[in-house]
Amino acid sequence: MKRRPLIVRLLSRLEGPQTLGRGWRFWAGAAIVLAAAVVYPLLTDSYTVGNTVYFFNWVFMALGLCLIWGYGGALSFGQTAFFGIAGYAYGVITLNYGADYGLTLWATLAAIAVAGLVAAILGYFLFFGRISGVFLGIVTLAVTLVLERFMAQTAGPEWHIGSARLNGFNGMNGMPNLTIPWPGEDGSLVLAPDLPLYYVVLALLVIAYLALRILVNSSFGNVLVAIRENPQRATMLGYDVRKYQLASFVIGSALAGLSGVLYTTWGQYITPSSMGITAAALPIVWVAVGGRSDLTTTLLGTILLIGGFQALTIYGSQYALVVMGALLVVTVLLAPEGLIMALALLPQRLLKRSARDAT
Amino acid sequence: MTPLLETRKLNKRFGGLQVTADVDFSLERGELHCLIGPNGAGKSTFFRLILGEYEPTSGQVFYEGRDITTLEPHDRIRRGISVKFQVPGIFKALSVKQNLEIALQHHLEGHSLRGEIGRQLDFLNLTAEADQAAGNLSHGQKQWLEIGMATSLKPKLLLLDEPTAGMSPEETHATGEMVHALRAEGMTVLAVEHDMAFVRQIATRVTVLHFGRIFAQGSIDEIMADDRVAEIYLGQGHGAPHHA
Which residues of B touch A232 (CB under 8 A)? Predict the structure, then answer.
């Protein structure tokens, strides 16, 4: 039988049982949102644009956690470890070798690779050691806290890698912005937190979102949700559950690494507190409140919550954290599947109820 | 010819508790074999040892003449062993169709995958429920869905752990016919079962386990006529195994 071309098969995976949203209405809506996102920075000031990029930076980590936890059922409490590792790795490479000749792009890839490699090693011991459930959360949280403590005590001048000082609690700073080769006078384009960076990060976001949609609707995604639902049955259908969990952990952690690099290039600094307990808890709140079992609800929930968090921080960051905690509690009690998810499913449920009442 | 499945001196101990003791068991190709015994006789543990969910304390498991004692469970499945659990092991939040897709996607894709899902739905009488969450099915339907998933791997050896638990007599009978149909397709079946009418309907040979040991083996009539077997069931109703 003739097989359809690869690209057609991939595109057909954009919709499927594992993702909300299908048909022309959904994609038309998505196109409108994307068009608004493209036009938006032209209508606002440079500060707001830079700030919006800051929101977007975190979404990759949230999408990665959504894959690991929401689809795979493995709650990692320590995605910030990979965020920090990649951020520091980017700093070490660029502070030593500079930003010329598109080096920051290679540094980005290398930093993500380092995060992915650490995730592969840690994940190997976790999943092949059959650690699951709450213990997985405890170990991953411990890893990120150990990293935070370790980096926080590197203030002395003896803590350096090449010419990059680690700087203890104050963190590393002064690393270059993303710089890409560009035709023109200086031969490069510096992606400061303004229009160019905005469009690059937006494009990355669209790519990551669509690629993950394809992934979770593929046979790989089928097995991943099967493991979440019933790991024993998945094993007894011939799947090596550990390999699938490890693969999703590495992919999700590489995405956390991408967030870390983008954050680092955005503010030109990274500190140990980005791996601390507060930082580690926030992605879980974003993903849980949005709706962890779907990429779209995670995406929307994360952007809304980070925006809301920042707006509240004006009144004091402790209050913002209390609100985040309260939101998590409300979600767990009232809509365990996520608030955005509950909203998305509301029309369907009402329809069902009225149909039941009618009969 | 080598038996399809064989265990040699298989032992499993949990602390001081001997759950499986020196079990020498063999299963020929094409057999429909039932494993019976009072509660706690070690039937489920024996299944788990065959599947690799438990590691034996000592002894070996052979499949198609090959030592699989240290093989991972999913590798054993890939070699042609499949199982239906006692409590229906299905993916409750996923649709019936998706449950079958996950079982079938090993060896099929695209049109042939969709075609086979349709055939299985038809065979299991679940076409109308295809898009429902599997958790919403009736108990009997769940059991059948899981049998469908287990058999869609086209196993050589099918393990059934109390396949008719909670089924009506009609459903039980239909399940027995299904088992015969599977054997006609070339599967060898080993079932743990309490319902003696079902055992009589399907089994060519019966093994009685008691305190982890093989207590008796033979045809259903030999086993039913064995006074010692009736005796070990005493205290569990009216000297079961009862005629249902």
Answer: 53, 85, 89
